[in-house]
Amino acid sequence: MKLGVDTPEIKNKLDELFSLILAEQSQVTGLKESNPEKKHLVEQYLQEYAKNKGRGFFFNYLSSGRGHGPFTEQIDESIKYDLIGGIGPNILGHSHPLYIKGTLEAATTDTIMCGNLLSYQEPAELTRTLLSSVSEKSKLRHFWFAGSGSFANDNALKIIWQKTSPKNKIIAFEKAFAGRSIATQEITFNPAYRQGMPQHLNIEHVPHFNHFDQENSLKETMEHLNRIWTKDKDNVCALMIELVQGEAGFNYGTKEYYQSIFKWAKERGLYIIVDEVQTFARTRELFAFQMFELDEYVDVVTIGKALQACGTFYTEELNPKPGLIAGTFNGSLAALRVGNLIIEYLLNGHFYGESGRMKQIEENFLSRLRYLSNNSCKGKIGYIGGIGTMLSFEVGDSSKSITDEFIKTLYKNGIICFSAGKDPYRVRFLVPTCLTDDHIDEIFRIIEKSILEVII
Ligand SMILES: Cc1ncc(COP(=O)(O)O)c(C=O)c1O
Q1: Least C-beta-crowded within 10 Å: which of 66, 71, 79, 420?
Q2: What are phi and psi of 295, to 5 degrees?
Q3: Over the stretch 321-363, which tens digit does the pLDDT of each residue have?
Q4: How far is the CA of 27 from the centre of ligand 1 (A)?
Q5: Residue 321 carries which DSSP code?
Q6: 147 lines ligand 1 (CB under 6 A)
Q7: How far is the C-alpha of 29 from the C-alpha of 72, rounded, in Å?
Q8: How far is the CA of 277 from the centre of ligand 1 (A)?
Q9: How far apart are CA 171 and CA 264, in angstroms?
Q10: CA–CA separation, 172 vs 298, rounded Å?
Q11: Could you tell me the domains of the chain?
């Protein structure tokens, strides 16, 4: 695809620049302590930033813009493993050649952001790639960009409500996280995220799969669904679900669990929205709904994060009337181009399926966590779980205080991750696909050391 200006001279210079940038970034090869003379810089810089923002940061972290693979460098020259990837977007690892290539190519264009009024090839190509990755078995036929995962979810809700008006009740799931917009903060289960907010929507939450009571999970969910249906069947229009609940610490059910719920919904004429903002590209298939073989049921699917952009898939039947969904931005030309390159790379490489890289990473992490919990860290690690590159575990009594202390200790020892869940709290990794066995060996030496340091 021709993009921007591409004379032979520009092409040569871009190739040269690509190699120079990659070679320079590739020097970030391993853990490093901060330079004693620059140690104060991160805190000093963040102090002013935090003051301007009105809130401090969980980590004293400020990237220098240099990093390679799983490693990220800060302005004090320290280097750590990045196992959270900006809470999802950085799926391939720092300075991946495709990030550099796509961004340089986008720099040859005449503008930065593109949107719905005056289009470019980038959003069109990305839309084609996305639709061809879902269209075979599912009914999803259209895709519309949005500025954030929250807004992609807002669009999902609007599309449903327009179709089913005046019905408006949405069934959501306990422990769900759907975003920070005025609508999605109500789909989100945790009331702490909407303190003082007026309530606008008609949402009811039902229990999601319970990993610790798998046998009764479906029965419990069904009882709640049937209760809602009995009292409010004339007003229920859709069910909205994250198949792998990200903020809940990667809680997920079985194929049979989801198929039963989805069949129940379809028998009652309800639409099904699947929020894949966090799961997109990170499970054992490009979409979690494909992994659970739910293609035939889904009506609306939202994605974000690893795509480098966000948006909403929907069926022909749900194509909304003009004017309902729009917005200035599709995304930056660089992000849309790189998003396309990422998907093609993941689909053409051996990343998905039962023998794919995603499953290998998952098994590698889970088996090593289990080994620690049965040996040197016996009694110090609780729940271990996750899927693909989304992995989580509990430490100590799984309280907020011990989990935060452990995460800060991991940080001090060279690993960046984050928490998830609430009573119990979990340690959350969103790992990059570029990890090698040597990296994972070193990561587990740090995890073991940190557990032994914090959990007495
Ligand atoms: C499942 C899920 N849905 C929606 C969102 C909201 O996405 P954004 O932060 O891009 O608005 C998130 C963000 O973490 C998410 O994990």
Answers
A1: 66
A2: -50, -45
A3: 999 999 999 999 999 999 999 999 999 999 999 999 999 999 9
A4: 33
A5: P
A6: no
A7: 9
A8: 5
A9: 13
A10: 15
A11: 31-90+354-454 (3.90.1150.10), 113-348 (3.40.640.10)
